Every structure is written in C-alpha cells, then in structure tokens.
Amino acid sequence: MTEGVFGRDGGHEQVVYCQDPQTGLKAIIAVHSTALGPALGGVRFYPYESERDALDDVLALSMGMSYKSALAGLDLGGGKAVIIGDPDTLKSEPLLRAYGRFVDSLGGRYITACDVGTYVADMDMIARETTFVTGRSSDDGGSGDPSGMTAYGVFQGMRAAAEHRWGSPDLRGKRVGVSGVGKVGRLLVDHLVEAGAEVVVTDVSEAAIDRVRAAHPSVRVVADTAELVSCDLDVYAPCALGGALDDATVAALRAEIVCGSANNQLAHSGVEKLLDERGILYAPDYLVNSGGLIQVSDELHGFNYERARRKVSGLFDMTKKVFALAEEEGVPPATAADRLAERRMAEVSRLRMIR
C-alpha cells in the first residue's frame, strides 16, 4: 500500500458496475484480492461528486481491505462497494434489494457489510436477496452494528502506541483529539473518557457533537479539524473520512501519536515518511480499525461475542509487533504493516497451490 501504487493500478481482480434505473441504484463493487479467501468489505452509500471519485474511492478502500484482513489474521480477501447518491433521499427497500441481487450474482467472491451511510437494518434488507452479507442484526442471525468493536480495536491500538512511546499503555491524563464523532468516533470517546484521558473533539455535524456533549460534559469542542490539529495534543485520532493526513496537516500536527479509525488516512504515498521524520508515531489505520471486520467475519462461523472481542483485543499485541518490526528494519510503521500483510498474503496463497 504505502510502497506500491494505491488505487487505479492496484492489481484488482474484478470491478463490477451495477445499475438499476428503476430504483436509482448506481453502484460499483471492487474485488481487490481473493488470495486468502472471499473478499469481505462494507458498502459505502455516499453522494460522490462524480463517478470517477466513486471509482477511486472503491478501488482504494477494497485494496485496504485486503491488507486489513491479512494483518488481522483472517482467511478473507479484500473488497468494497460504493452506492452513489445521498442515502437520506435515495435509500429504499427496492434499491437495497437490487444491490443485494448484484452482490448475489458474484457467487460469493464478494461479501458485503456496513460502512458509511449503511446500517444493520440495511444489511437485513440486503440479506433478503443474498446470503453473502454480514453485519446483520442479532434477530436476523448476525452480530449487529460493528462500530463498537471498531472503536474498541482503535482504543487497543492507541494503548499499544502509548506503551511504545511513553512506556505505559495508560492514557490517563493524556490529551486526545478526536476528529469525527459519528458511528465510531463517539464510541472511542467513551473508552477514552473512561480511561481518564482529556478529550477534545470536532465534527461537521452539530447533532454528533450534541450527543457527545450530552454523554460527556467534560469533553472540549473546537470548531474544525484545522483548529484541533493545532491544539497541544498527545494523540490525534482521525475518525472521519480518508485523506486526513496530508503534508500541511502533518506539518501543523503537535501530537506525538496518530491513531484513529478513518480508512486511508495517508493522503498520498510519502506521508508516512513525513510523520516518521517529525517523530510522530503512526498506528497504521487498517490495522487498528480492523475490529469491525473481525466482528462481522466471526458471523461466518456463527457469531460469538466473547470470541470476537478476544480477537480484537489481540490488536494490542499486533500493533506492538508492527512498531517493533519498524524499528528493527528502520522503516515507518505503515511500511512495516504493509510488509507483514504482503508476506502473509504471499505465503498463504502459495500454500493453497498444494493439492
């Protein structure tokens, strides 16, 4: 990922355009790799400005899922889907079921799940047309919303980063800035407040901010991400959309650690080196935010909450392993994570050639 081309020339196995004019469905499904197993990844429902933007997003996200599954130790590949449009006005039962028919037509090469703009109830609806769906409600045989497990995994990764940087995983008294307090960020704030951290947040949604304020009056709110980044932080947690770490943000950043739930945080290849040069410890996004993937993948074996939580707790040790390899090989943590993921994909896919 950080060492290769990320996106259009990422070696994707299959890209499928899905269109149903009667329901308004315009979707793209991207299967990046099935080297470790069927490609699992969420469906993002978002009002992209152009089809090109949607394509770029789904290609990048699906590639990230391959690395995420590999590093999480799952026998799954990487895939993603996007539905183009405003979910508040376009989403309907017929549209979701039409999307489910397209997923089903891939015969299990791609398994869908929740992402930005889609929820557990949507997965239950999609499941009326295909069995290749996870993140369903407990009433429908699923594990429910994976946001809580994603937040827990990010929290474990942050604890591991704190131990690597400061010698202790204790976040008490540390100032953590969370950009984006929607599905996952809000739940991450819960963990941080409980751990005794001093939390500063920002979000474009006033409703999201109001929910955090109601639950945690001690949390400080700033106007925007630019103001948050310039704060005197110990940890910066990007928890909104991708591309949060660009050259300007890294130059302005005052935190010693970056660890958040957003996908594809590095705006371009080379940002990981800028972070490293500034002495900022970066916990690779697709590693620490894999808790939700671990939860929904557990549905494929008959969901067990305690088993899934134990697996997510293991992200603490895996994050430490990535930091140790980075130091050993003299590379940024993002590069070390890529190498571990690529090694597993290569080794396991080779074993599958044995008959």
From TrEMBL:
Residues 144-353 form the Glutamate/phenylalanine/leucine/valine/L-tryptophan dehydrogenase C-terminal domain. GO terms for molecular function: L-leucine dehydrogenase activity; nucleotide binding. It is an enzyme of class 1 (oxidoreductase). Its EC number is 1.4.1.9. The active site is at 80 (proton donor/acceptor). Belongs to the Glu/Leu/Phe/Val dehydrogenases family. This is Valine dehydrogenase (NAD). It comes from Saccharomonospora viridis (strain ATCC 15386 / DSM 43017 / JCM 3036 / CCUG 5913 / NBRC 12207 / NCIMB 9602 / P101).
